[in-house]
Here is the input.
Amino acid sequence: MSQHIPSQVTLHREQRLLEVAFEAQSYQLPCEYLRVYSPSAEVRGHAPGEEKLQIGKEEVNIEKIEQVGTYALKFTYDDGHDSGIYDWEMLYDLAVNHEANWQDYLNRLAAAGIKRKVN
Here is the structure.
């Protein structure tokens, strides 16, 4: 059973941000960040080393949010991606480790010689 259950989830579509509150702490997670860290096999692969670096997701947005049982959310993105279930623990981990995860993603892009489009 999850120890971290969000008390509120709000999509700010114009800002392309998902605001998630866990107890008294609120986190703003960019849709791009959530998309590139999708728990889907398409992104993570089926085994270690099969991960696929996501590129060109700077302007992605969430079109639809569905609750999955009492333990997770499923997002449908406007780029057509709709697989992967973000359980509460994963969502909490993405929230509290946002800065470190984002820097890791930027480092992986740089190592691959890929530059993000800056808005």
Helices lie at 31-36, 41-44, 88-96, 98-111. The CA atoms of residues 53 and 108 lie 8 Å apart. The mean pLDDT is 94.
